[in-house]
């Protein structure tokens, strides 16, 4: 199958035009008319993921995070990014990323995570002018209020999260929830304005936990943990639309952050 036939399916769900200005989503290594036979889905392109791709006969690796964000001036194996890109080119492995366009797609990252937690999303947290339902984060409600600590236990269990960092609890119960996968500290204000009791995101800094007037409980589950669902979203998109193309979910896509608990 041609790469463009595969990427067209992804981009119908999450057009490249929906990515943030700083992003580098799309085909990074390879040509649209190259033929590929099997795809591996991961969060990041790493040397371990490329080991897996070679072992499993995958000549296309589709990730959430682009391996290249900034221009590379040299290819001399000086760091992991250079080594991975060099290796992909030499081995004939195409690299494609679906990043902030998947974050902002209706039904994308935050929508998927919300439903995993029993939250029914009803609006976009930070809407874009690209179209209805496009933007970052979601706001929704649980069927009924639950104790705040019990909701955090649900997050830990359903997402396989080892550590949750959280602020003082603004209320004893949670009903209205705001969620933004990845680094979402900039949207704490939007979560408050949306009337959320609880805001779930990642990459919060020290002062982010000092929410004004304690009107909102904020929680940080980690960047990787919040975005691991990208693998399942991409698998669902491809397996439903390309029934004869082999797609494998990576078993070696792992969190670069380790925890001593």
Description:
α1 packs across α9. β5 (120-127) and β6 form a beta hairpin. It is globular and about 55 Å long. It is built from nine helices and eleven strands. The model has no long low-confidence stretch (mean pLDDT 96). The strands form two sheets. Strands 5-6-8-9-10-7 form a six-stranded mixed sheet. The termini are far apart. The chain is of the alpha/beta class.
Q: Layout of SSEs?
A:
Layout: H1 3-13, E1 26-29, E2 38-42, H2 47-55, E3 60-63, H3 80-91, E4 94-97, H4 100-104, H5 109-116, E5 120-127, E6 135-147, H6 148-159, E7 165-166, E8 173-183, H7 188-193, E9 198-202, E10 217-220, H8 223-227, H9 230-241, E11 246-249
Parallel strand pairs: 2-3, 2-11, 3-4, 8-9, 9-10
Antiparallel strand pairs: 1-4, 5-6, 6-8, 7-10
Helix pairs in contact: 1-9
Condensed summary:
With 261 residues, this protein is an alpha/beta fold.
């Amino acid at each position: 199958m041609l790469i463009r036939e595969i990427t067209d399916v992804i981009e119908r769900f999450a057009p490249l035009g929906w990515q943030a200005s700083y992003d580098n989503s799309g085909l990074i290594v390879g040509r649209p008319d190259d033929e590929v036979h099997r795809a591996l889905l991961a969060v990041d392109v790493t040397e371990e993921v490329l080991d897996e791709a070679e072992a499993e006969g995958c000549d296309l690796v589709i990730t959430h995070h682009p391996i290249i964000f900034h221009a590379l001036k040299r290819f001399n194996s000086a760091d992991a990014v250079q080594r991975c890109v060099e290796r992909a080119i030499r081995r004939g492995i195409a690299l494609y990323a679906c990043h902030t366009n998947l974050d902002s797609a209706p039904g994308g990252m935050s929508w998927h995570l919300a439903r995993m937690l029993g939250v029914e999303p009803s609006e976009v947290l930070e809407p874009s002018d690209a179209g209805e339902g496009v933007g970052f984060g979601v706001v929704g409600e649980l069927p009924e209020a639950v104790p705040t600590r019990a909701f955090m236990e649900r997050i830990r269990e359903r997402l396989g999260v080892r550590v949750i960092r959280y602020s003082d609890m603004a209320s004893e119960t949670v009903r209205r929830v705001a969620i933004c996968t990845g680094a979402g500290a900039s949207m704490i204000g939007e979560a408050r304005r949306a009337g959320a009791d609880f805001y779930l995101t990642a990459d919060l800094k020290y002062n982010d936990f000092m929410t004004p007037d304690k009107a909102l409980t904020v929680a940080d589950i980690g960047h990787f943990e919040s975005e691991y669902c990208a693998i399942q979203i991409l698998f669902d998109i491809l397996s439903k639309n390309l029934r004869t193309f082999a797609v494998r979910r990576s078993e070696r896509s792992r969190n670069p952050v380790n925890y001593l608990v």
